Amino acid sequence: MIKLKKDMSLVQIVPRVLQTVLNLSLVFLGIILSVLLVQELVVFSKILIQTKNSDYKLFLANILLFFLYFEFITMIVKYFKEDYHFPLRYFLYIGITAMIRLIIVDHDHPINTLFYSLVILILIIGYFIMNVTPRERPDSKWFVKK
User: Fold this and answer.
1) Residues 58, 40 contacting (CB under 8 angstroms)
2) pLDDT for residue 45
């Protein structure tokens, strides 16, 4: 049972309740994604076992879908390991993987493929900028007056 102090106000209780709801929802989502990940492994193994089906597009699409599930589960794990914080780089990884999957699966229209490629380029440039930028914020040591 949760013990509440007498001096806790509503302003302190509401964020804790919402954080608990968010954490429980992410655990439930992680379980669902894990089930879907295992289901994707079963589908993937069926594709490998079937010798008649040599559709490499389906094969690659299923591999990338597997990695999308894997990345979402990894992001949820990182959320809990990094004190309830989603690292931005994982969103970029997921975006790049999703766009690559989209190019592999839906490459019938060249202009759409070009747009998807430009989106990947923008995500990679964003990732590069994020890695080049120093982790310290301006208020930490650069603007401290002596």
Assistant:
1) no
2) 83
